[in-house]
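name: query_chain
kind: protein
chains: 1
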Amino acid sequence: QVHLEESGGRYVQAGSSLRLSCAASGRSFSRDTVAWFRQPPGKEREFVAAIFRSYGRTYYGDSVKGRFTISRDNANNAVYLQMNNLKPEDAGVYYCATDSTIILSSIFNPQQYDYWGQGTQVIVSS
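structure:
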């Protein structure tokens, strides 16, 4: 079992930067795939970024490429999402998810992840 807790979400102006954190407890998730998803108000949960297993390869949704960076901090059992040049359409609840057995082709699918945090809200004003 692994427990995930997100933090760092808040209200910001468009063009600002934020760093979200996903802290894991219960066991190390340094070898697991960790992803960020977001759910804008009234919309489906969508893939934002993932870091695949211990290989360190990263993947991003098209709308955030070049602006967001996912990174892993094994010493602190955490994963971060650095978000730059935020836009109003980036607003939503951001969730961290992890899975130890997910295959690469499935990392974009939220239903493939076993563990989720409760989310942190990001609000971006124009």
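note: The two ends are 40 Å apart (CA to CA).
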